[in-house]
Amino acid sequence: MTDEAVANERPAIQLEEVTKMYSGKAGVRALQSVNLSFAKGTFTAVMGPSGSGKSTLLHCAAGLDQPTSGKVFIGDKEIGRLKEPLLTDIRRKNVGFVFQSFNLVQSLSVWQNILLPQRLAGIRPDKKWAREVLEKVGLKGKENVLPGQLSGGQQQRVAIARALACRPDVLFGDEPTGALDLKTGIEILRLLREAVDQFGRTVIMVTHDASAAAWADEVVFLADGKLAGKLISPTAQQVADRMMELSAG
Ligand code: ADP
């Protein structure tokens, strides 16, 4: 196998025996020996009761935080071995984020928001691709509008376009539909699904919502910082039942 083929075999993100402790009186173990891999071109939902370690998992998987022990690979790079500015570079080029609260810069237009990460990174923006992405998310014609003039769903579309404009391998969503009504939430989930199916991105999304999780190829459950099972091609009912069991346990 060529080096390139070997690299392609690797998952988009891999966690090996990842443990994360937070110091403090009780020394919280937010993640305990988690082994998990996210295959390229797949959509995974991460679920679990409050405090089960979902955010910690997302932050460690994205290289925003370092595990206390264990390894995290983004593509073929073990990020624990990387120092700044290489780590920043990997984060910029390989991962994108979509948050519940959109996190747009209110004083900049839609178009400026979309190009901002590339500008901040000192990369010349790929405007052709950015225009394609803008059209894809249904915001053509809104380039010069300020975020405050848009609905919540439209603002989340801008956030998705901003993330996709950087062509990240992995798109992380932290409750991306949490602030949206049902219909708008479905439009956003459809876009994330298309990011996987049409653009070959890998999407990892934390959610509390069983119907949102049912859009994923796989749901990973966490409880008390440990893996508590998976569901492949889940239905919303299966996800809701599993969540009930976890919350009861
Ligand atoms: P979730 O996203 O599932 O609600 P978190 O990953 O936020 O869970 O938290 C997992 C555990 O780690 C919880 O017990 C939480 O209180 C603790 N925790 C999270 N962040 C910190 C922090 N910065 N300092 C101390 N404890 C933390």
Describe the structure.
The strands form 2 sheets. Strands 6-7-8-3-9-10 form a 6-stranded mixed β-sheet, with helices on both faces. A 4-stranded antiparallel β-sheet has the order 2-1-4-5, covered by helices on one side. The protein is of the alpha/beta class. Helix content is 37%, strand content 25%. The chain contains 9 helices and 10 strands. The chain has one domain: P-loop containing nucleotide triphosphate hydrolases (Rossmann fold, 3-Layer(aba) Sandwich). Bound molecules: adenosine-5'-diphosphate. Adenosine-5'-diphosphate (ADP) binds next to strand 2 and helix 2.
Poorly predicted sequence stretches spanning 5 or more consecutive residues? none
Helix content: 25-40%
Domain tally? 1
Examine the coordinates and then state which fold CATH places here, giving the name of the CATH topology: Rossmann fold
Q: Count of helices?
A: 9
Structural class category: alpha/beta
Rounded to an integer in angstroms, the radius of gyration calculated over CA atoms is: 18 Å
Strand content: 15-25%
Q: Could you tell me the number of beta strands? A: 10
Written as H for each helix and E for each strand, in order along the chain, the element string is HEEEHEEHEHHHEHEHEEH
Largest sheet: 6 strands, mixed
- Heteromolecules bound: adenosine-5'-diphosphate
